[in-house]
Structure formats: structure tokens, C-alpha cells
UniProtKB/TrEMBL annotation, chains A, B:
Protein name per its UniProtKB record: DUF128 domain-containing protein
Pfam families on file: NRD1_2, WHD_RNase_R
Superkingdom classification of source: Bacteria
Alphabetical list of Gene3D superfamilies matching this protein: mj0159-like, Winged helix-like DNA-binding domain superfamily/Winged helix DNA-binding domain
Domain NrpR regulatory: 84-322
PANTHER family, A to Z: GLOBAL NITROGEN REGULATOR NRPR
Domain Ribonuclease R winged-helix: from-to ranges: 11-75
UniProt xrefs under InterPro entries: NRD (IPR002846), NrpR (IPR038982), NrpR_dom_sf (IPR036984), RNase_R_HTH_12 (IPR013668), WH-like_DNA-bd_sf (IPR036388)
Length: 333, 333
């Protein structure tokens, strides 16, 4: 794909990706115009012919196109610059689609999808249990699927177990369902001393990276979640967010309710305009520290058991997840 | 150290760290005032007593204090927030101190300090040679020191060899010596296709992180430098910088001269206000892509040989480094 056409093609692929149904040239043109990326229908048709040929799109029925798996890959491979801010954008999109009902404790939650070597799953289950016991996880529920089974649209590899943990982004979804918008500021390593959070030792701002900060901290083996779970001292994944100052009281109440139904995760709620763990916050805002959903997997990785992790991998019904004691006991020897 | 005193103590430690000689209360007060962090001499003396007691500072001669190793550690452990932008600041400080003489090819250069398992150094040397041969290194010179020897102020561990590679920040130093100031924008993974740079696949902006981006990419095993060296296709560490537009022509000439004396590293120089590899650049600026100095070590890490890497570890005389063929041949079997 030539560089000068590439941007336009990616714009078209993105529109198809965002749509739930196949789209024709007219609707694609409308969507692009609304997004301030005007393109004539003729130009769009020209590009669609070439994306069909390259296998990035395929015709469905009367003049509609949809994205192929290859097209999706092409989008995902889009240059890093196009992915900066992508993490925040993805958070917002998933948050909006969650539609979680707090009262009934039902509805979608955002989950992380991880793979763990099947041969070491019982060891991994013991480790994860410790992290859940110590309250360093996002909520109290998860799902573990055996090799070859299916988790949503994802088929689990034959040599690994799949683990779905609640993603901390679900906190944003619950807050939004109560009318509170959340801004994601950074992901970092949170130092725990004597079971209490003290400070962030490393941070990566969401707006300055094409990668999920917590995935990176796990991959580069910078966490010490297992030690934090066992002794109270260690470095765990966490993130810093902001909400409007008038929502602070409600957020505190919601935090308690979320804890109760097992979707927990808010570690600290600050005061209006006041620094939280030394992190400055604008006047009309309040800081939140939210625990990282991948912490149980970080502890597994620390033990030398290899994992693959995809933060914000999917939406899943909360009811499909079960209390950790129940699930993990089945996999422990 | 209590949180409310901590900031002030760190301010004092920082002033002592920046000074080349021990300082008394009066000079510390002056320095703090100039930095907009006014503190009375009485307050300073009060804190200095406690930092002496904690072993963070020590008295030298008549009422002067200097930082101890423990004090330096305390500074380095400062919370992540204090370290954001630290990478850029450290680059600028080292660049200023370089004083490299291009004509004579002498003077200080900024180096990365790495450790490599001593038992696998010959294997590592073979791998690094391939990376240097392929031109994916920063310049053509390095230093390898045997276990137990000294590299500058650093004593090499008994079970590892030390490797000093030219840090890409040295490019900034050479440009500055010719009156060209450089801004560091981001570190990233640069995709090489058929031996040519095509795009950045991941980026981390310097202003949004407390970590060196390239150290992180290596640690999390996201590079494929060895493959890029062997086949021409792969992901290598690189960074994106900007210089004033009128300096573009001179930068191109300097790039060629640097290449010639073995301090190379500028991969691409853009055009005024024009995107470079798809990265937009402000009107009066020109983009630069500079190769990552740690690429040879990334390739070693990719082979499963464990390394420790400190980007911008020290300043070292350029003459202390030698052509890679000469050095690496000694360590190959």
C-alpha cells in the first residue's frame, strides 16, 4: 500500500470496523464526512476495489462491504502514531458499550484475556489465589477455560488455559452508568508498604504511548505482585484516573457497592483539587487509584510461568465469571 | 522521611547533586532561590542535620555538605512523578557536558553501560558483530571489559562482562557543539523492511514516562534486531527528534562526518515542516530518526542471553572506545 493512499484506506477500514453491519459507498462517505475526513464516493469505490483485491475487505450482498480478518490485522498494524491515544479511545468505546446494571449485578464487563501454559495451570491457580486473597485483584471473579474450549469468539490454544479477569476499565463503565465520566491519566507501578499503597514508582501516560502500560510492566518483569500479596510490600500494577470533583462522594459510595458485588478495584478516592499519592490533580477534579486487573497474571509471570496478556480483550457478561475460590480450587492440585 | 518534608529534602539533595563541590547552607539557599524554591537558611540547616543523621549527606571540611551514595539512591528512588521528564532532562544535562571535538574526533561521548553473562560473552560478541556489520548500531565503536575490571567509576561484577556502547544522545552533543539544539520527542520500535526504515510500530513519548523507552522495549523482548541484521526485516530501537528547520542542511553534512569517524547514528533527516516516516513535524522544525545505541544488546537479549542495560550510563572519552571488529574479535571463540 503506498504511503499517500494508506491513510485514506485506513480511514475506510476504520469506518467498516466501527459498523456492526456491512456498509456501501454511500454510507461510508456519510460516516467519513461526519468524522471530518471528506472523501468522494468515487474515491471510496476506487479504494474499495483495491482493498477487495488485497483481501482487506470483502463484498457482502448488494454492494455492501465488510472488513476481513486480514483487514482487521492491517488496522491493528497501523503505525504507532495512529495508535497513540488508541488505548484511551478503546477504553472509552468499551466503557460506553458496557451497560452494566449495578443493582442486579448483571450486564457486560470489560475483561482481560490471558493465556497460561496448560501444564502449569495448577501452580498458576495457587499463585493467583494468593493475589485474590490479598485483595490485589480487580474484583473477586474470573473465568478459567481449558485448552481447546471457547471464550466468547476466542478459541483457546491446545497447549494453554485461558484466563479472563475483570479489567479495571470496568470501573469506568460502572461510574458512567451512574453518570460519572472518567479520564484515564496513566498506568504505573504502585508501591505497597505494609499492605498500603504509598506511591507510584514508575508511570507511563496513556496519551504518550501506543502500548498498554500495564502489559508492558508485566512483560518487562518489573512487578512484584506475589511478594506484595505474601508480605504486604511490593510493586503492583495500578492506574490513575480523574473524575469531576462533585462526583467524589458518589464515587466513594459506588466503590463500596462494587466491592460488595465482587467487581471491586477502586483503591483510593482523593479530595477535590488535592494531590493523591503525590500526584497533582486539577482544581475541579478528584483523583482515583484503581488496581490493575492483570495483577494475578503478573504474579504468575513472576514465577517464571509464561503468560500472554491482552488488556481490554473483550466484553463479557458479569454472570459468566465466578468467585475466584470456586474457580481456582478446581484447578489447584 | 515524612511526606510533607520529603519534597524539600529532595530539593536540597538535588542541589547538592548538581554541584561539583560541597556546598554550605548559604550557597544551597542561593541555588534554591534561583530555582524558585525559596527556603530559609535556618530551615535548610534543620533539614541538613536530619539528612546527615540518615546518612544522605555528609559534612566535608568547614560547614560544607556533599551527597552520599545513599543520598544519590534516595534521589533516584524519588517518586515516578518526579522522574517524568527526567529522561529528557538527563539527556540535556549529558549533552551539555559532552564537549566533543568533531575535527579531532576526541572528547566525551555519552555511553550506555550494559552487563552480559560472562560465560556467554563469546556468543554475545558474535551476535553484536552482526548488528554492527548491518549498521544497526550507533557508530562503530565500543568497549568490552572483563569481569572484575573497572569502567570509569563502575566496577564490573565478577560474573559478567561490561559493554559500553555509544548512546544515541551523543548525536545531540555533536549537533550542540555546532550550535544546533535538539528536542527529544519519542523512543520507539522502528520497522525495517529490506534494510530500509519504513515506520514506527510502537512509540513512547519522553514527556509521558518515567522510564527510558528503549530499555523497556528490550526488557519486554519486543525487538527483533538480530533478524533485521540478518534478513533486513525486523524491529529495531530508534528515536525521533527535532531540530530547527534552518539547521537541516548542516545536520545532513554533520551526519556524514559523524558516520566517517565512527560515531554515526542519524538514519534520516526530514524536510522543514514535513512528516518523516508519517510522523508530523511543526512548521519550523525538521525531524530526525536516530538509531538506538542499545540495539547490539537487544539482539543479545533476543538470543536468551541475559543483559542489564542502563541507557545514558556515563560520559566516556571517545578514544577509550575502539572499532568493533577489533574488540569483538578478541571475545569471539
Amino acid at each position: 500500500m503506498e504511503e499517500r493512499n494508506r491513510k485514506k484506506i485506513l480511514d475506510i477500514l476504520r469506518v467498516l470496523h466501527e459498523s456492526e453491519r456491512p456498509m456501501g459507498g454511500t454510507r461510508i462517505a456519510q460516516a467519513l464526512n461526519l468524522a471530518g475526513r471528506e472523501m468522494s464516493q468515487r474515491t471510496i469505490r476506487y479504494y474499495l476495489e483495491s482493498t477487495d483485491q488485497e483481501g482487506l475487505t470483502e463484498p457482502v450482498g448488494r454492494r455492501g462491504r465488510r472488513l476481513t480478518t486480514k483487514g482487521l490485522q492491517e488496522l491493528n498494524n497501523a503505525s504507532a502514531l495512529e495508535k497513540v491515544g488508541f488505548v484511551s479511545a478503546r477504553v472509552d468505546a468499551l466503557t460506553y458499550r458496557m451497560r452494566f446494571k449495578l443493582r442486579q449485578a448483571t450486564g457486560g464487563v470489560v475483561v482481560n484475556l490471558s493465556g497460561v501454559e496448560a501444564s502449569r495451570i495448577s501452580e498458576a491457580a495457587t499463585i493467583m489465589q494468593r493475589v485474590y486473597d490479598a485483595g490485589l485483584s480487580m474484583g473477586q471473579r474470573l473465568l478459567v477455560a481449558r485448552p481447546g474450549s471457547r471464550v466468547g469468539r476466542w478459541r483457546v490454544n491446545d497447549d494453554e488455559c485461558a484466563v479472563a479477569t475483570i479489567c479495571s476499565v470496568s470501573v469506568n463503565g460502572v461510574l458512567l452508568s451512574q453518570g460519572i465520566p472518567t479520564s484515564n491519566i496513566f498506568g504505573g507501578l504502585l508501591e505497597m508498604n505494609d499492605h498500603r499503597p504509598t506511591r507510584f514508582t514508575e508511570i507511563i501516560k496513556y496519551e504518550g504511548t501506543s502500548l498498554d502500560p500495564l502489559e508492558i510492566f508485566i512483560k518487562s518483569r518489573m512487578t512484584s505482585v506475589y511478594r506484595a500479596a505474601r508480605t504486604g510490600d511490593g510493586l503492583v500494577g495500578a492506574s490513575f484516573r480523574e473524575i469531576p470533583a462533585p462526583a467524589a462522594e458518589q464515587a466513594r459510595l459506588l466503590s463500596a457497592r462494587m466491592q460488595k458485588i465482587g467487581i471491586g478495584g477502586i483503591v483510593l478516592v482523593g479530595r477535590p483539587g488535592q494531590p493523591l499519592l503525590g500526584v497533582p490533580v486539577p482544581t475541579d477534579r478528584v483523583g482515583l487509584v484503581v488496581i490493575g486487573g492483570l495483577n494475578p497474571l503478573a504474579a504468575v509471570e513472576e514465577a517464571g510461568i509464561s503468560t500472554t496478556n491482552h488488556a481490554m480483550g473483550a466484553l463479557m457478561p458479569f454472570q459468566a465469571l465466578h468467585p475466584f475460590q470456586e474457580i481456582l480450587n478446581k484447578f489447584r492440585k
